[in-house]
Each structure stands twice: as structure tokens, then as C-alpha cells.
Amino acid sequence: MTFPISTEQCAKLTSATMRQLQWADENGVISPVHVGRHRSYSKPEVLAVLLYVNLRSRGIGHKTKLVIASFMRFDPYKD
Question: CA 62 to CA 79: how far, in whole Å?
Fold first, then answer.
């Protein structure tokens, strides 16, 4: 699979619904690239969605999921 991928491909790959992907984007859990009305997802964003969906299925609380997602975006080597 070549990246970036479309919303439909991301939803199919991660078992997330289109609405969950939209919510995650609107609430800063992930930051896909917007091209017009369409979103494109890179590998790190797809991994974040996979993690988020997995934690949700295990009953992990919303705030905890957001903290974990913020650590995924943290780059210790970035100035």
C-alpha cells in the first residue's frame, strides 16, 4: 500500500468509521492533510488511528487516549 491513503482506505484498514476519523481530525487526535474536502492519511496518522481504535475497544477513557495520542505526536529530536 502506498501512502498517503484516502479516508475510505484508512477506515477500511483501521476498522474506524468515517465519522470517527472526522471526529479525530476535528479534535486534534490526528492531523491528516486536507486537499479540498478530502483528507489524506500518512503512516503515523494511520498508526495513531489504529492505537486509538484499539484503546477504545478496551474501554480506555477518552482523556487517557488523548494523552497517549499526544505522546505519539511528540518528536524529541525536533527543535
Answer: 29
Reported pTM: 0.78
Strand partners for 35: 38
Predicted confidence (pLDDT) per residue in 31-42, tens digit: 899 989 899 999
Q: What angle do CA 15, 32, 68 make, to 5 degrees?
A: 70
Q: Quick one: cell of 72?
A: 505519539
Whether 5 contacts 46, CB under 8 Å: yes
Exposure string over 10-37, b if 16+ CB within 10 A, otherwise e: bbeebebeeebbeebbeeebbebeeeee
Q: Please report the pLDDT score of residue 73 as a whole number.
A: 65
